[in-house]
Structures are given as structure tokens and as C-alpha cells.
């Protein structure tokens, strides 16, 4: 009789590695340590199994081929350069129009480059229901890919009316009035906001950032279909060069000869705790026999909540961290992940991991309470801090990804540096939360030595300076004597 | 490149049969019609594939072997008859005690007989998280079984405290103070009620029956572990003979030489619309080559909401339906399904189907809005009426089950009988909802001829008579002249 699969218990000190399926093993890290299923180095570099598997006691030859994207082929929904674009644009001009808000355009961007492969457009109801109930999609060949957040487009009653019997619509950026894409073979179905929110966020409490911004006042219908994006989505904010598509990232990893790619998702400034983890991961991958593990430092570039540091400042900060030598530019690719942020904890972390598979990452670093936040109306965190990494280790469709959970890093007041938290001398450690970090920078106070490289910290202080209204900014007050 | 699986669109008139996976085909019914994947009768009788598969154009030989239970072997958690029982009972007396409410005992019953196979006790956190996020459990061999509702046991702070470091607890029925079971290798974890409710019901609106009864005032911790049930759960309500375990049902089906078992879950009196569907299903299974399809008429016997007809009256009504010849006793097994009712729509219908696989059913009939109810605070149904059957057809772990969705039956005022609703002459049909049916019976009014067999209807009227308080009951009022 088959027994239930055992998943690692992240509250124990010992590593509980195990076989997840016939096809795929999964490499596990624990409390800052990466450990592998077989002590003699049998791990799964990629799902296409080009790497030679170890036989008893033999070292594995690590292949340089990248992990296969979900569905086998990276989806690319941008109309090829050339006369077709003009043709499509003119075709679109005759179609019923659906207006896109900022976040909708971000999803068009995400879909167009294949981050959500094999999804080819906004979800129809069959995809939507599978996402809500199973966090995964079944493919025609019976295999399963992960898909945990609904990628949907809402329309209101009037728009639905105006579409009538048309099987196609033009998607138009409301801010520019520019046609962005054509959605074909459309399906319109009910937008049950309450159910979608409850099943995605595990709460219906008011005040969740994405819901307030993108769902609350959206229409009562969802429209799904196949997307053709007229031309690549650009933001013209000086950062488009950092917005590498999954195909471009794969090209870059191949150019660099990466034999392992480990992704680090973030939406905050990089402090030395993060850096410790990333350098430690690389060191261990090298120890395990990889010759050239490449870090994908992958800040989220879409919608974030109002008190997060804006993308442009975060990018400046990340640049300083590389300039200051905290991370090694030779083994690091910094790029922007175009997705908006849901703050949906264990549900969203699956999306963050899945999208990185499509970009070629076969190792994914996951920390405490990924994509978590405070409960909007109760005095507690919305999600259990351990659920993110647990759910990630169990998620259907992510078996081919090596999940690297890690112990939280904190400031060690004895060693005067960021280090992995040691519960046996817990009083030596200082936890500096995102809120605490922001408050320090806002007040132009310095964090303890070794928390963040000085160049990076200065960027943060500059950011908060730029926010301070003139009348309360000391620099300006000095210039205007009372 | 793999493409997304297409699921049948139940709003169309045409059947969209398709292959779900390499291993399993799925038989589909549509608008009261059962259709099969290949017109030359290639369908999947059971997952253990004992039946000979059709080759091109040849008729398949249908085997009598029943569908395999989830996990390969039916779980049985009752301590074997004999001295071990007394031993276990004495062992339990020395353990910390956890008190069970009525619904907890119903879950012990469900677990003990293997309805939730391969689950061997109340869920630990790893099972709980997989249920909440994926509605399924991964087994050690990498395969997946369906598991959509959390089967959990809540304890309060004081009970947690009293358990201390013990690895085992005794489960005690609070109503009788009798030891029911031992739970071993226990794991205690947080009971985040809001998240569990949101992800299971798709709403957190107050007033849902199961939540009010079993969750709202329950403790802040969940306790999981392996269950050993001292002796079979009995209710001593005169109906225990109807409570066949999955093993007993399988024995019965084999005794009868069933070559197909089709299950009908219900928690309402059987009207002729239900009967039409069941007899029609049998007719079509016979047409398709089965020699002896057996109906499992399977009323739910656990907790139901206050305005549902109680089990004892429903059983009387079902008995009348068989006596009156509406259903054929020779091809029908009436038994009680011991699970409590969640009223959790698309999430719960998966549980209802999965449990019947374990009882040997390989066909499952699903109607409009299964396990649905009105939204507790808004004027609408809680779930989309089509989502239940759609989600069921997509659900991981249910691929081996043949899902038989059917068109709603209604009273045809022209034919003066229950028939499948024909939208082309919709004004001829009268919809008699559960509420309407109950109101008619309560007022001792008769439904239209042909809605329900007279014997069955009389049981309903008798039930409502038995409820009416003496002062408003005409029979009693006559006896007490004003």
C-alpha cells in the first residue's frame, strides 16, 4: 500500500530528504545548509535529464543544459517584428475595445514573454478554476504545471455589452489610449470576487494592497483568451534594459556557461543577510560539483504596496551592492521580474518559483514568510512564517525545481555582522525588520555596522530624503530661516 | 509543445470528450446522456485495468473487478476483535484525553473505515496544507490522490497544555465519556480558522452551517496523528445496519456480481427527477455493454443543517421509493455515508466522489450545484451552479473515476412527469426546489402528480407533522376545542 509522502519538517534540526516522485528528486536545503538526497551527489539539475545520473557511488557529470520551461517550450506572444505588426494593429482598431489598467498591462507583459508558460493569454474559466482549486494546470498530455495565482482580466457590464458576439477584442492601455494586444477566441465568465479572493489570499479582510488596487472596483466579468501582443511592453523609465525576458535570461545563462542557476526573488533593498545567503548558496553549489553556478538576482518590478521602496531606488541600491563587492558581478545577473505583487504568501511564492523555472532557474531560494505581510485588520502576520517554504516543497508542478529553504539571517551583535540565526545564543541576535530598516533610513539613522554596505544604505537614505516634504526636511528648513 | 488540457464546456450542446492522461480515460455524460470517449466502447472500468481494453472496433470484455481504492489498499483503523481491544482501552485510559464533539466522532467513523484512504488519522500539517492548497495528497510513490476537505481535530489551549510531551492521546466522546480511539505519533499545529475557512469554502461570511457548528468555537490548535479506533462506531438509532463500510460495500457489490457501480450522493428525499436520472444511467450503462451495473444510493448520514430533513425520515422515504418500485431493489444498494456535510460546493463534491471510489464506485453522478447552498448573507447562491461538475472533471486524483454530469430534471407540466429540462420549451417546466418541496410538505399540500411516489411523499408530510408544535397543529387543535 502506498503511504503518504513525508515532507521535510522545517522545525527540526535534521534534514529529512526524500523521494518526491518517480521522475524527479528534489534537493533540499535546511537552516542555511544545502543537503542533497544522496550523499554521493545525485541531484537533479534539470528536468530534461541531459545530465548523466549517478550510478552507485559515482560522481555525476553535471551538464550545462538549462531546466526545461513548463509545457516544454517557452511561450512568446509578441507579434514578430515586420509588417505583421502594422497589420495586427489595423485589425485591432476595428475590434471592440477593452481598457487595461496599469496592473493589467503588467500581466500582458508577463504573459507575452512566457513567464507563465504554457499559458497563452488571460485565463479562461477552465484555467481559472484549476488555479483556484488546485494551484496547477493539467496539460493535454496529462502532465501538470504549477499555476497558483489567477492571471485574469476583468471587464464591466458595459464592456461586456459592447463586445457582443465578437470573438476577439483589442486591449488598450487606458493611460496612453494605445492598442497593446489582441485577445482572440475569447470566453467571458463570472467574476466572483469574494471566492477568488478567499481562495487566493486565504482571507477576505479588507485592505489587502492588490485587492484594493486591482480587484475591488473592477468589473463583474472576467475575459479570457489567446493573446497577441503588438510589440514588446516598454516602460521608458530608464530600466527597460534590466527587463530581460525569460528567453533573454536563458541566452545570458548559456552565454555565461552556467551549469546551475539559483534565483533570488526580492522586493526590498539587499542587506548583508540576503547577500550572505546568496554567496553561501553559491559556495555550496561549487562544493557539490557545479563549476559555474549563476545567481539570478531578480527584483520584482510590477505593482508593490505604497510603503515598499520603489523599483528605481531599489535598482540603484542593488547596483551599489554589486559595486561595493558584496555580490560578485561575474556570477550574478541582475534583472527585473515584471510581475505585480499579490502579497498572497504560500499561494504567491509558487508563482514566484514557477516563473523562474521558465527563465531557466533550477534552484530557488526561499526564506521566512515569502510574499507575506501583516494581516490587514488583525495584529498578526497574515500567513504562518513556515507555510511558504512548506507549500513550495509540496506544490504540484514544481518537482523539477530544487527548493532551497534557509534559516533567517539576523544581526549578530557579537560578531558584528549578519549571520544565520543561532537559537542557542538568541540574545546575541538583533532582528531588523523591513519596517525597522525603513524607519532607520527615514530618520537618517545608521544601522549597525555590517548590516548593509554603506553605498547601498546611502541610496535608501537618499530615497527617504527625496520623499520628505520641504517644510519638514532639515536641509530645506535651514535654507528658510524662521 | 504541450498544450493546456481542454475540459468539457457544459454550457454547450455538443460533447467534448478528450483524453485526460496517459493512463486514464474518463467517461463523460452530458445533459442526461452518457457518451464515451471512443464510439466503439473503450472505457475505463477500473484503475487496476483488469478489464480487457478494446482494440480497433472490437467490443471490450467488461471485467467484474472493482475500482482500486486510493493508495491501493483500503485503510481499516478499527482494532481487531479480541483481547487487543481491552488492552488498547486500558492503554488509552492512561493517556491524556482529548474530548470529541459529535462531528469529531463522525470523522473518526469516516477515517476508521477507510472512506478517506490512504489517510490513517486526523491530518497532520503536511496533509492539511496539501488539502488546503492543492485539494490532493502526494503519496510516497509520487502518485496523487484527491483530498479536498480538511479532516482535522481541533483542541484548545488547556488540552494542548495537558498533553504536554505525550506522543499519544486518548479520544473520548464528550457525550458518553467513552474512550473511542487512540491517536499516536501526534503533531499539534496552529488552527488558523480564517485561512482554513476561506480556502475551503471560498468565503468567510458568517452563518455557514458546518462552521457555526464545528469550527467557530473550536480550539486554536489542530492535532493530527495515526488513529486506532477501539471498536466500530455505532449510533444505536436503528440505522446501523445501513451503515456499510467501504469494505462491506465492496463485498456486497462483488456478491451481486456488479461490473459497474454508479454512486448517487444525496441529502434530500428522492423525487422522480433523481429516480429518472438513476434509471437512465443504468439503462445507458447496459446499452454500453455492462451486464450488471449496480446503483449505490448513498444518503449522507452525518451532520446536516437544521432545515434539511433528518436522516431517519430520509431513510424511511428512500425505503418507500424502493417499495413503490420507482427504483429497482435488485440493482440498488441503499447505504448510509457517515460523513458530515460541509456545504462547500466544488471543494466538497470532490470529497463526495473520492470517498465513493474507496467504496468501489467507478461512476459518479453529479448534478447542478452539488453540495451548494445559498450565500449566508447575500441574496445569491454561494457557488456557481456549474462549478461543481467542472471542478470534479478537473480534480487531481479523480482521473480513474467516470464522472457523469447530468442536466437538471424538472417537472414537465405537459407530460405530467419529471423529465430532463428542455430549454427549447422552457415554459412547460416547473422547477421544484428543495425549499419549495419542504414548504409543500410542511403545509400538507400535494406536489404535482408524478413529482414523487405517493408513499415517499407521505413520509415527508408525516415528518413535518411530527415537527408542528401542538398549538398550531390542526390535528391537535381539533382535540382541544376553543
Automatic annotation (TrEMBL), chains A, B:
Cited Pfam families: ATP-sulfurylase, PUA_2
EC number: 2.7.7.4
Cellular compartments annotated: Plastid, Chloroplast
GO molecular function: adenylylsulfate kinase activity; ATP binding; sulfate adenylyltransferase (ATP) activity
Any GO BP annotation: sulfate assimilation
Enzyme class: transferase
Pathway entry: Sulfur metabolism; hydrogen sulfide biosynthesis; sulfite from sulfate: step 1/3
Family: Belongs to the sulfate adenylyltransferase family.
Residue stretches making up the Sulphate adenylyltransferase catalytic domain: 241-462
UniProt catalytic activity: sulfate + ATP + H(+) = adenosine 5'-phosphosulfate + diphosphate
Lineage top rank: taxon: Eukaryota
InterPro entries: ATP-Sase_PUA-like_dom (IPR025980), PUA-like_sf (IPR015947), Rossmann-like_a/b/a_fold (IPR014729), Sulfurylase_cat_dom (IPR024951), Sulphate_adenylyltransferase (IPR002650)
Record-given protein name: sulfate adenylyltransferase
UniProt keyword Protein biosynthesis, yes or no: no
